[in-house]
Amino acid sequence: MNTQKIGKLICVGTGMRMAGQMTPIALSHIETADVVIAAVPNPFARKWLQGVAKEYICLLGYYSDCEVEGKNRRDTYRRMADTILEHLRAGKTVCAAFYGHPGIFACISHMAIADARAEGFSAVMEPGISAEDCLVADIGIDPGKFGMQSMETTQYMIYQRKLDPSSLLILWQPGLAGELSLKRFDTNQARLQILVDKLARDYPLEHEVILYEAATHPLEATRIDRLMLKDLPQARLQQITTLVIPPAYTLQIDQEIVDLLKATTIAPLADAA
Known about the structure:
- With about 270 residues, the protein is an alpha/beta fold.
- The protein has 2 domains: about 10-130, Tetrapyrrole methylase, N-terminal domain (Cobalt-precorrin-4 Transmethylase, domain 1, 3-Layer(aba) Sandwich); about 130-245, Tetrapyrrole methylase, C-terminal domain (Methyltransferase, Cobalt-precorrin-4 Transmethylase, Domain 2, 2-Layer Sandwich).
- The chain is about 30% helix and about 20% strand.
- The chain has 9 helices and 10 strands.
- The chain has a 5-stranded parallel sheet with strand order 3-2-4-1-5, with helices on both faces. The chain has a 5-stranded mixed sheet with strand order 6-7-10-8-9.
- Helix 7 links the parallel strand 6 and strand 7.
- Helix 3 crosses helix 4 (about 105-120).
- The radius of gyration is 22 Å and the shape is globular.
- The model has no long low-confidence stretch (mean pLDDT about 90).
């Protein structure tokens, strides 16, 4: 017996620039859902969503929770997810829209989908064009050439992580580096210096790094600023800034493995019956 409840959740991404970056399936869900619940910071994108959606609810005002004593971003994200679930439980088809990709640095969508499925609702996520996709295109890098490591900046700082400096490294949200209270959306030079000092375990201080910010509308310029690692604490960082660290060293052949591979005889495939 089918016990799936009435009501459906679809999490979609609007892309970074929305115009031209929104997939047809995301647009279809936004246009046909009973309600669109969105966390999209760009004012042009919000205005467009309001004009297209049957009903529109903006979640950005929930960030004022961080000004309440004892609350942090996790509380805010939980309340955002609960708002999505409230409309889902009312039997509506809910489209939750997030800028970029709905599953990348968007814990609200993951929380809402997990809770919805646990309660017996249909819940899916549709992919969107992310900041990483734009970064690869704008800077002109191929993650497959040297390999790529990708992690959130504060996570890298507070955990013991092994880096491969012969690979591309992307650190997300350096503008929040070392912010442990989950109540602020900035950092300071002292915390950035700690970040630089830790990176200096694997990279020369004179190594060139890149500060990247994807353009979010046609009139906005993409930011690609190159500087030395040691100068990072004095750089201008925003919430949307990404730190890109190209390889500092060349790849080294593992000759033992190469020799083993050369010595391996591959048996021919058996003839089809």
